Amino acid sequence: MLPFFFSAFILSACCLTKGNCISYDELKELKTEFAINLYRHVSETENRTNLVVSPASVAVSLELLQFGAQGNTFTELQDALGYNIHDQSVQDFLHTVYEGATDSSQGTVVQLACSFFVDAGVQLSPRFTSRAARWANSSLQHTNFTDSNRTAAQIQEWITGNLGDGGVHGMPLESAGSPLSQVSLVSTMYFKSMWQKKFSFTDTQMLPFTTAEGSTLKVSTMHHTAEVNYGQFQTAALEAFSMVELPYLGEKLSMFLMLPSHKRTSLSQIESHLSAKTITFWANSLKRMKMDIFLPRFSIQSLFDLKTVFSALGIRDAFDPITANFKGISEQGSLYISEAIHKAEIEVTEDGTKASGATAMVLLKRSRAPIFRADRPFTFFLRHANTGSVLFIGRVTNPS
User: What pLDDT is recorded for position 170?
Assistant: First the structure.
């Protein structure tokens, strides 16, 4: 079976401002910075566990909320994302990003979709309705929040329709179907692809993997020899690590793997140097070479309550029934976000991936033909070549 991945983000809401012209490169950097900030806050709450998150899925929901937010509620959303959705240059750039996120070609499927589930009693602003309908393959669906079971089933059905059957069951939709809710915002992202060069099933074997705690276990480890982009780096604190790029079919998307060079170096030490600038530097500094790749099979499911994460990102008013200002969505009542949930899954196998979500760096000289052996915790991220958009980011601390 081909590997796959999906991510779903649910916002249940009991629920223009100024803008500066931003360049394409600046927006690429801001999008990547948001992905890293989101990952950093999520990883802090998850300690040393495996995790995966889809920054693209989370961001598109916050962008849609920007269309309806006003006052300080809007300012907090703008500050968290780093850009103003009302800026035409921002919209032009994001349309390019999301066109790349709804592409199906050469054996690769990338689909991004959003939907507003609105209670029949809520009168939406025509301006907001029009904007939402044109944003990132969005749709508007009416429901009856007083019938929580039916609403939860309706939302679940929509998610299944956009993500397929894999892993959507068990999504906690009870709050989204609460009688107190009036608006639910759901966004999904689906990715399925094959490696540019597949790993051979016959080469997969049980090999040792050392966890962060120091214990060693045997895990199914894939292997192949291929021409890849590879680099060795070190931080200002002389923490060495290597990076390899594994492209998917068509080479529009790649998985980047970051691996500490020494088992005594913790993954968090390397991750602390993640930034939009360092990721761009590392990716641009990789050199083409033939090498042996050893990568464990892994499958990760992550489910997050994003309220704490959003609070750390500065998004607070949106969750407060008194201070939330979503009058751009509806003049009726006081809408506020009652729930923020994100679910992501990723599976990496021999065929490919199916997923249903300022420190100076110095390039080290290569002393020998390298072997990339992921036999200890590593970080990964899926990145779009043209836009630099990080579709998924996560870490593997225990493949089994």
Answer: 47
Give the pLDDT score at 76: 97
Q: Tokens in use for 315?
A: 């998004």
Helix (H, G, I), strand (E, B) or coil at 334: coil
CA angle 47, 235, 294 (to 5 degrees): 65
Eight-state DSSP code of residue 125: -
Amino acid at 159: I
Q: Is residue 99 in some structural domain? A: yes
The C-alpha torsion from 9 through 86 and 183 to 35, rounded to 10°, is: 20
**361 & 272 share domain:** yes
Domain around 228? 201-296+357-396
Task: Please give the helix or strand (H or E) that residue 285 lies within, else none.
Answer: helix 276-285
DSSP assignments along 39-57, one per residue: HHHHHHHHTTS-EEE-HHH
Sorting pLDDT into bands at 50, 70 and 90, what band is 388? confident
Question: pLDDT tens across 187-210, in order?
Answer: 777 777 888 888 888 888 888 999
Question: Per-residue DSSP letters for 154-176?
Answer: HHHHHHHHHH-STT-TT---TTT
Mean pLDDT across the stretch 222-239?
87
Phi, psi of 160 (to 5 degrees): -60, -40
Q: Which residues contact 110 (CB under 8 A, 6 or more apart)?
A: 100, 101, 102, 103, 104, 189, 190, 191, 193, 253, 391
| CATH value at residue 30 | 3.30.497.10
Q: What is the pLDDT of residue 245?
A: 95
Question: Residue 279: in which H helix or E strand, if any?
Answer: helix 276-285
Q: Which of 6, 123, 80 is closest to 319 using CA atoms? A: 80
- Are residues 279 and 318 both part of a single domain? no
pLDDT at 104 over 50: yes
Q: Which two tokens stand for residue 293?
A: 């790749």
Burial of residue 280 (number of CB atoms within 10 Å: 0-12, 13-18, 19+): middle
Cα–Cα distance, 267 to 298 (Å, whole number): 17
Q: How far apart are CA 145 and CA 121, in angstroms?
A: 9
pLDDT of residue 45: 75
Residue 352 resides in a domain: no
